[in-house]
């Protein structure tokens, strides 16, 4: 099984295994994979470029802070899919990103795919820097919201079923649990995140 599809829970025999070391190894591998994509374009990422000038390319991973391996994998995989769509995706601009949004709408039809690339670019622009922010602009956010609304209107959900969990929703909850302005919002986000971790569904949280 390729390591890119491997997860710590795939281990059946934990004898003599340090799970923290396994996760650290996966985290480093995924950071290296993302850097392999970004470093050739370092002139577009001022924070990354500055970090390399100060500490060298082998320490460039430090710009990602304490980001967990699962988050690194999600963002790296999402960016790879965008580059597969367009080899010249980096550097992205508002017109190329909107074109990709619309392509995802027509070819994927999954809200998670659209929201995923937006969150990944936000992550990269935050950690690697970007000369002129794109993902956080009002134009991009409004376009994303409009397309998500179109996608939601074409899907029918059975009210008897628990809502499916999207990885990026979990990331949003984790962010809110630490960064929400109101304590009540932090508490609510923390409770929902805990429930997802316990049973992998939103259903129980709906009754709170």
Walkthrough of the structure:
The chain has 208 residues and is mostly helical. The chain has helices at 19-38, 46-55, 69-85, 94-107, 111-127, 138-153, 167-179, 183-199. Helix 1 runs parallel beside helix 3 (69-85) and helix 5 runs antiparallel to helix 6 (138-153). The longest helix has 20 residues, at 19-38. The model is unreliable at 155-161 and 201-208 (pLDDT under 50).
Topology diagram in text:
Blueprint lengths: L18 H20 L7 H10 L13 H17 L8 H14 L3 H17 L10 H16 L13 H13 L3 H17 L9
Helix pairs in contact: 1-3, 3-5, 4-6, 5-6, 7-8
Helix-strand string: HHHHHHHH
**Rounded to an integer, what's the Rg over CA atoms?**
19 Å
Backbone shape: globular
Number of strands: 0
**Unreliable runs:** 155-161, 201-208
Please give the share of residues in helix. Answer: 55-70%
Structure class: mainly alpha
Mean pLDDT figure? 82
Biggest β-sheet description: none
Distance between the termini: 41 Å
Q: Please tally the helical runs, counting DSSP H or I stretches of 4 or more residues.
A: 8
> Approximately how much beta-strand content do the residues carry?
under 5%
Features:
208 residues; mainly alpha; disordered C terminus
In a nutshell, what does this entry contain?
With about 210 residues, the protein is mainly alpha-helical.
């Amino acid at each position: 099984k390729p390591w890119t599809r491997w997860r710590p829970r795939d281990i059946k025999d934990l004898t003599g295994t340090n799970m923290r070391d396994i996760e650290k190894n996966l985290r480093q591998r995924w950071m290296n994979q993302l850097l392999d994509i970004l470093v050739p374009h370092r002139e577009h990422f001022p924070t990354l470029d500055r970090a390399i000038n100060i500490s060298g390319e082998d320490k460039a991973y430090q710009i990602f802070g304490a980001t967990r391996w699962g988050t690194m994998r999600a963002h790296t995989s999402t960016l790879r899919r965008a580059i597969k769509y367009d080899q010249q995706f980096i550097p992205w601009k508002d017109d190329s990103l909107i074109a990709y949004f619309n392509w995802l709408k027509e070819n994927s039809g999954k809200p998670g795919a659209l929201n995923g690339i937006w969150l990944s670019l936000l992550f990269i622009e935050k950690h690697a820097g970007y000369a002129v922010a794109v993902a956080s602009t009002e134009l991009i956010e409004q376009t994303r919201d409009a397309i998500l609304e179109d996608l939601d209107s074409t899907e029918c959900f059975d009210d008897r079923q628990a809502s499916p969990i999207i990885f990026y929703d979990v990331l949003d909850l984790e962010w809110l649990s630490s960064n929400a302005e109101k304590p009540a919002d932090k508490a609510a986000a923390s409770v929902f995140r805990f429930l997802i971790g316990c049973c992998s569904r939103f259903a129980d949280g709906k009754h709170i």
